[in-house]
Amino acid sequence: MGRLINNFRPYARILLVIWVILIIILAILPNLPTPRIGGRLIPIRLDYPIHYLEHTLLAFLAVISFVYDRRQLTRILITLSTLIAFAVFSEMLQLLIPARTFEFKDMFLNIAGIITGTIIALAVTADQKLSETTKTQR
Asked: Phi and psi dihedrals of 37, rounded to 5?
């Protein structure tokens, strides 16, 4: 797994930039269409899981891009702080768009996704360190 993550890092940075741009575009687009099934509105709000998942992927890509070892506490905290600031910014940006609204639920889900993505990425990074240690002991 460690070699896979190391090979993926340069691409993760490129995907991270693309993903940030996509999140900003989605945050400023007015009146996004409401999904329908068979012409009827879906009775649940799909934007909640979308907020969560888009920020989970954002955090995963950011941590894989900038944190090489889970013992780098300073890098982890800087990355996490930057991601949370971005989540707040992307939600507050909607205050400036006439057809969009700021919602605390969305911001909470953004931050929950960031925490989840960070934990997943750190788990993968920890696995990478473990696999490198195991190889050197052989």
From this structure: -125, 120
Residue 86 CA, chain-centre distance (Å), reads 10
Give the pLDDT confidence score for residue 38 in this predicted structure.
81
What does the alpha-carbon distance between residue 69 and residue 7 come to, in Å, rounded to a whole number? 15
Residues in CB range of 132: below 8 A, 6 or more apart? 2
> Which pLDDT score, from 0 to 100, does residue 1 have?
56
* Segments forming the whole domain that contains residue 111: 2-28+52-133
Report yes or no on 36 lying in a domain. Answer: no
Question: What would the two tokens of residue 30 be?
Answer: 């007015």
User: How many CB atoms lie under 10 A from the CB of residue 15?
Assistant: 17
Does the pLDDT of residue 76 top 90, yes or no? Answer: yes
